[in-house]
Design a protein that fits this description.
Layout (H helix, E strand, L loop, with lengths): L2 H16 L4 H14 L10 H17 L76 H8 L4 H20 L13 H19 L39 H10 L4 H6 L10 H6 L4 H14 L6
Helix pairs in contact: 1-2, 3-6, 5-6, 5-10
Pfam families: Tyrosinase
Keywords: Copper, Metal-binding
Organism: Stylophora pistillata
Length: 302
């Protein structure tokens, strides 16, 4: 997004979360995630379709503020310095076109979502937004390895645990709690997770979702959201890749998992115990995730 587009995006979020016309619905939507956190929404059967549905509910709400609003995504796999804040176009910049930076003593102290200016939604009342940046997210080669997995079960597990759960706790603070839907970066992160699923769907649709009602959706079936071109309410979603992503992924596409594994690149942070605990990853799944991580990490560290 351009600097002006970011300002508009941030302004829409702040209006939805503070204006009395929207605040109640906004808080109910955010708190829904916390209420359901420890249930099926973070398990294989519902994780992907539920969060796709949830992103749509968020977008629909914010469109009541600005009819042109669409949920953006943050491709953390492309950032050499994922926590950079010096440039106006960097996500964590402290100006009005950024989301603010790391927490100082916990609470975020700069940017439009800083303490005293904006507060995070919680079932226990409003509180300051916190962050605790640490480590490095998985890179674009690791993301590509996940996308091209032959087994859907392995793809889903790696996307959910090795990518999704991990980045939540690399950002840290509120994002690494059951209140994780409250930070504005939650939907940027989940937009990218959903894009990765869509990139996989473009390659193959060899997985049929069971007829399961999505938690809290009023009876919406998982199958109703699997096709981004036909979302509930007649919505069509298309993720637009940046020129940088197109260039980098163009070099990676066509390579096998073994070739990607052998690509010389920098290692990223190993799975955090905090993320495994937060998302109640079973002992069996954690063991599998750590085995998968050995393949996702580069064998030739650059």
């Amino acid at each position: 997004m351009s600097k002006e587009e970011r300002r508009r995006y941030i302004s829409t979020i702040k209006t939805a979360s503070t204006d009395q016309r929207f605040r109640g619905d906004y808080e109910n939507l955010i708190n829904m995630h916390q209420r359901l956190f420890s249930g099926p929404i973070h398990q294989p059967q519902q994780f992907l379709p539920w969060h796709r549905w949830y992103i749509l509910q968020y977008e629909n709400l914010l469109r009541r503020v600005d009819c042109k609003f669409t949920v953006a995504f943050w491709d953390w796999s492309l950032d050499a310095d994922p926590w950079g804040a010096s440039n106006e176009l960097e996500l964590w910049h402290s100006g009005d076109s950024g989301f603010g930076g790391n927490g100082a003593g916990g609470c975020v102290r700069d940017g439009p979502f800083r303490q005293g200016v904006w507060s995070a939604v919680s079932l226990n009342g409003r509180k300051c937004l916190t962050r605790q940046f640490r480590g490095t997210p998985p890179d674009s080669a690791a993301v590509q390895e996940v996308i091209i997995q032959n087994s859907f079960e392995t793809f889903e597990s790696e996307l959910r645990i090795n990518l999704h759960d991990q980045v939540h706790c690399l950002i840290g603070g509120t994002m690494c709690t059951t209140e994780s839907a409250s930070p504005p970066e939650f939907f940027l992160h989940h937009g990218f997770i959903d894009k990765i699923w869509n990139d996989r769907q473009k390659r193959t649709r060899n997985h049929a979702w069971q007829q399961v009602s999505l938690m809290g959706s009023g009876g919406v079936q998982a199958t109703a959201v699997t096709d981004l071109s036909q979302q509930p309410g007649g919505v069509r979603v298309e993720y637009e890749a940046s020129s940088r992503e197109t260039r980098i992924m163009g070099r990676l596409q066509g390579k096998s998992i073994a070739q990607l594994h052998e690509t010389k690149r920098k290692p990223f942070t190993n799975l955090l115990g905090a993320s495994l605990r937060l998302f109640h990853v079973s002992t069996e799944e954690a063991k599998k995730a750590k085995e998968n991580e050995k393949i996702l990490q580069p064998v030739n560290a650059g």
